[in-house]
Structures are given as C-alpha cells and as structure tokens.
Amino acid sequence: MNKQDPIPKKGTLNDSQHWHLGLLVTLYHNHKVDQGYPYYLALQDYFTRDDGPEIEDEEFALVISVFSNYVLSELEKANES
C-alpha cells in the first residue's frame, strides 16, 4: 500500500477482509454520486447489513483503517482537481 494505491493488494488483507472492504468502497461511491457525507452513509449502510464472511475485531479494524485511508485519498484527489 502506498500513497498512490490506498487499497492493499491481496496478501495484506485476507479474502474476507477484501469482501468487507469492497462493500464499503461500493457503498461509498454509491452515496458519493448523489448525497453528501458518503463516508458516514457508507458506514451506516454497512452496519445495517447482516451478510458477508465473519472477521475478527483486529481484521475489521484494519478494514476500517484501509477504507478511511482510501476515502482520504479520494478527497485529496478531488481537492487537487
């Protein structure tokens, strides 16, 4: 993972973590299109769902960290434009 690529490649996250990260990124972009606060709304939608593979707290904390870095990177790119 580096500044240009905020989502780590396979190997850093396991398949279950990638599933959860992919869902968060999808929800973020869905809300980004037509609503304010896409980060907050993506997390809110995510926590109302009851599906996907189980992950441990430590694994989930890493998913949230990577997702947060991804959103910050997206916002930084938008501000540079």
Describe the structure.
- The chain is an all-alpha fold and 81 residues long.
- The protein has one domain.
- It is 68% helix and 0% strand.
- It has three helices and no strands.
- The protein has helices at residues 15-34, 38-48, 57-80.
- The chain is globular.
- The two termini are 23 Å apart.
- The mean pLDDT is 89.
Name the descriptors:
single chain; mainly alpha; 3 helices; 68% helix
Concise synopsis of the structure shown:
This protein is mainly α. Helix content is 68%, strand content 0%.
C-alpha termini separation: 23 Å
Oligomer: single chain
Number of helices: 3
Number of DSSP E strands: 0
Give the SSE map:
Blueprint: H1 15-34, H2 38-48, H3 57-80
